[in-house]
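This is your field. Please look over both lines of this record.
***
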Amino acid sequence: MSASRETLFARLDALGVEHKTVSHRPVFTVDEGRDIKASMPGAHTKNLFLKDRKGQAFLITARDETQIRLNRLHHHLGSARLSFGPEDLLLETLGVRPGSVTALALLNDTEGRVRFVLDAALMQWPVVYCHPLLNDATTGIAPQDLVRFAESTGHTPQLIDFTALHDDEESAD
């Protein structure tokens, strides 16, 4: 069963996490929401729901401008090759549909089936923006509070510096 937005906000409140939410039209991609983001200074996120060939699910939350090379990421995660996770697994584990994938959906993964990977670049911003379970709003919270929220759901994030990964890959080429 998927948590409601009210349940999510109650969880954030119980943790003492300051949050501000702005409602807007539904957006399904990073590019679709550029005009909305223009009035919201901070780091906006993109989220990838992936699985490896062994069936392990991953949620990658990165700054919207971060480049992620899926064909090499599995080496850094210690996993088998990665591909996009199917919609039924996304709904089953995180309780959201494509277009609404968000780190805040970790609240729904009560069985701990999803590994959470967080872009280290997000930690440099005063505010990080995520969808609050649906893509018709955006919620801003401090990056440290996003980590605290994830940990409260049983998901200690694996911080990855994607920029450093690209530097390493270029020097190996």
